[in-house]
Amino acid sequence: MFMFEKAVVGGRRYWTWIGALCAIIVVGFLCYVWEHEVGLGITGLSRDLVWGLYIAQFVFFVGVAASAVVVVLPYYLHDWKAFGKIVILGEFLAVSAVTVAGLFILANLGQPMRVFNVILYPSPSSLIFWDLVVLSGYLLLNALITLVALSVERKGVAPPGWIKLVIILSIPWAISIHTVTAFLFSGLPGRSFWLTGLLAPRFLASAFTSGPALLILLTLALRRLAGFDPGREAIRRLSLIISYTMVINVFFLLVELFTVFYSQIPEDMAHFEFLFMGLQGHAPLAALMWISVILAVISMVLLITPRFRQDDKILPVACAMVFLSVWIDKGLGLVVAGFVPTPLGHVISYVPTLPEMAITLAIWAVGVLMITVFYKIALSVGEGLAG
Amino acid sequence: MSIDRRTFLGVAGLSALAIAGKSSLVVLAQGGQREGATGIQPATRWAMVIDPRKCQKDQGCTDCIAACDKAHNVPHFTDRAHEVKWIWKEPFDNAFPDQESLYTAEAFKSTPILVFCNHCDKPPCVRVCPTKATWKREDGVVMMDWHRCIGCKYCIVACPYGSRSFNFFDPRPRIKELNPDFPTRTIGVVEKCNFCEERLAKGEQPACVVGCPEKALVFGNLEDSKSEVRELLRTRFAIRRKPELGTNPEIYYLV
Amino acid sequence: MRDRGIIIAGLIFFIGLITIPVWYNAAAGTLAKGPDLKLPVEEKNCVAPVEYMRTFHMDLLVNWRDQVVRQNIRTFKAFDGKTYTMGLTQTCMKCHTSKADFCDRCHDYAGVKPYCWDCHIDPKLVQRSNV
Fold first, then answer.
1. Which of B135, B146, B178 sits opposite C126 (nearest CB)?
2. Bridge partners for B221 per DSSP
3. Are the C-beta atoms of residues A105 and A131 closer than 8 Å to each other?
4. pLDDT for C30
5. Beta carbons of A110 and B247 less than 8 Å apart
6. Which chains are within 8 Å of C by 3+ CB pairs?
7. Is B95 near chain A, with CB under 8 Å?
8. Quick check: A190 and B154 CB within 8 A?
């Protein structure tokens, strides 16, 4: 039923890739066992900075998962036939990204064995409860959609009528997962850096630019590695979408900067100052944040210029820049800066430790492994029909 | 009657959803933050009034902190990144950033302010806990259940006062003197001042209150109009930490 | 059935192999005995009858935990009318003073590792550490 037999057939390059991913996963897993035994003290987290790389990565990958809607919505609601071949790739990306996000949450828990308490003792006032609900639902929706899509393609039949409803449901659901994740942060009275109505829109804008950028890179990689061609029109339209969403993303950041620095409220300014310039000698993220800004500006210029956007060599570079820029901003800066200065006005620093980074790398590797296996299955099913 | 596998799975799935949905509806209907909230004003609302200037009488005194640490097996970590503290001292400008000024009164510039959990009336930490491992009791104490805590640390993120500590390592080896009358905590859970609820149950005052040689900490029932805390609040001006956030903290500092 | 002999021989060998724990220990006289508990000397009654405690002491303790922590109910009326304060260290271990000689005996035998003592203090630890 799951067609995994398609994933165990491959050449030497394929198996070397799988082997390398498994090696990374094993190393990271061993580090996690160590973290579980000795405690989260082996990470760079501290008493006043309790959410760091793990939670920031969680936020980023929920965004990647939500971005599947960028290909699903036009194809199913507006009949953009051009997206026909990449819709399933987007949905598989969503499944992998949600799994990765969930693993980051587990890595961050102090008592992971008790995680089922969230289900046993539901707390509807807590956004973590709702995040669990919407993320699990989204995972199930996309798993179901991809399973049905592959099955019908392989059997050569028309999809069942009810799957259309499931797919339509996944569209607002995608918006909801990232909105709920933003609400995790934007309703806390003590954290002024996140206490803005603009946080959810910022999340969505950055997700809808970085996720499809990754999808473009993945499809171009598939074209190179597996001879899979999604079609010029699909790439053209997707790159047009990310150029608009990148502009919106940059605009949202500028809007935030205006409110904070025109109002001159010290508490609000301090977080941005820590991020970009450092406070009291602590500037762990300044260099990275400026790189993120520069990459954002360059990639935005490249994307909005048709000549560069439609260039086969420049587009992947622009997409990589977009992805990296948003990854730095959302996957590090956003979460860390909320904690400095602390509620008591102290300035602390945060640098992830090596075990922390190894665990992060391993969780990424799980996602990459899932994508590899899924795409192999999807492409094999497609090839099987053609050949 | 024969049923094919797909129909069976579909019916089973819908049934499971229906059963699960009912319990969620029940919980949603209950809502609220206070366990056992009945809408009637509770007969007890614990609060603390602190006179920071009495704290100055013996510079460097940490008797209240020592009393709390001993009573509750609070571990002692030397590096600030991993320290666990229930009650500690902060400079005035850190405890009251909204009162920050270049010209803070001399009396307060060097006064240490004792800070700990404010046992807010509307605690954000309680709102965000995904397992109800922390909740607000009828009498005002914001409680912790260390059996249920999953260590997600959301409560630490939500607390506007930095009152909570996470156990980054096993606390047992770092406890100076093991007190058998109170449990320790385990690795990976969050802890904070519990208003000595185990002592309140026996009719005793909190350990920090008893431990202070200057009687700088006064603990009492705000619902009792004749209590010492009410008397102090009637006659003296008191400030609270970050009152503009609407958390309604129940720790008052006399100025 | 040409291979009848081999099959039967193989079956007998397999059954013999799989029942080694029984007949080997019976022959060596090391068949597992029950756990050897050291009972308290002064008190003859626990907070509930022995049979009940043997089967349900885990449920009792969980109920105690929820009542004390979550409902602030701290006194327990035992089956014989006596009242006790609910607490592992304060009450249970006042009589069952040695975790190693009592609690661990059954737990080790059954291969369970309750995590109560990660937090709740074994009185013997206090005597050792505060010397």
1. B178
2. B46
3. no
4. 65
5. no
6. B
7. yes
8. no
Structural contact between residues B64 and B211, judged by C-beta atoms closer than 8 angstroms:
yes
Number of B/C CB contacts below 8 angstroms equals 40
CA–CA min distance A105, chain B (Å): 8
The H or E element containing residue B220 is: strand B217-221
- Alpha helix segments (H runs only) across B31-114: 52-55, 63-72, 92-95, 106-109
Question: Which element (helix H / strand E) includes A65?
Answer: helix A53-66
Residues of A in contact with B168 (CB under 8 A): 39-41, 45-47
Tabulate helix, strand, coil % of chain A (nearest 5).
75, 0, 20
- The domain limits of chain B are 5-254
pLDDT tens digits along A267-293: 999 999 999 999 999 999 999 999 999
What is the residue-level pLDDT of chain C in tens, covering all 131 positions? 788 999 999 999 999 999 998 888 888 776 667 788 888 888 888 999 999 999 999 999 999 999 999 999 999 998 888 899 999 998 999 899 889 999 999 998 888 999 999 999 998 888 765 54
Of A58, A67, A181, A68, give the one whose Cα is nearest residue A131: A181
Determine contact, residues A194/A185, Cβ cutoff 8 Å: yes
> Which residues, including other chains, have CB under 8 Å from residue A207's CB and lie 6 or more apart?
A62, A63, A64, A66, A67, A178
Residue C81 in 3-state DSSP?
coil
Partner B contacted by A189 (CB < 8 A): yes
Model confidence pLDDT, tens digit, residues A217-262: 999 999 998 888 889 999 999 999 999 999 999 999 999 999 999 9
Minimum distance, in Å, between the CA of residue B204 and any CA atom of chain A: 31
Alpha helices (runs of H) in chain B, residue ranges in sequence order = 5-30, 52-55, 63-72, 92-95, 106-109, 124-128, 154-158, 197-200, 207-211, 228-235
What pTM was computed for the model? Answer: 0.89
The answer to whether A41 and B168 have CB atoms below 8 angstroms apart is: yes
Residues of B in contact with C130 (CB under 8 A): 177-178
Q: How close does chain B come to C130, measured CA to CA in Å?
A: 7
CATH topology of domain B5-254: Alpha-Beta Plaits (3.30.70)
Distance CA A200, CA A205 (A): 9
CB count, 10 Å around CB of B102?
A: 4
Contacting partners of chain A (3+ CB pairs under 8 A): B
Which residue's structure tokens are 């010397």? C131
- Candidates B132, B137, B103, B105; CA nearest to B120 is B137
Give CA–CA dist A285/A300, Å, rounded: 22
SS3 B46: strand
| Yes or no, beta carbons of B180 and C118 under 8 Å apart | no
pLDDT value of residue B100: 76
Q: How far apart are CA B111 and CA B59, in angstroms?
A: 9
Which of A38, A114, A190 is nearest residue B158 as measured by Cβ atoms?
A190
Q: Pick from A81, A25, A1: which is nearest to A372 by CA?
A: A25
Chain B residues touching residue A348 (CB < 8 angstroms): 81
User: What ipTM is given for this predicted complex?
Assistant: 0.93
> How many CA atoms are closer than 13 Å to the CA of C95, on its beta-carbon side?
13
| Candidates A41, A118, A342; nearest CB to B150 | A118
Question: What is the 8-class DSSP label of residue A330?
Answer: I
The encoded tokens of residue A377 equal 């299955």
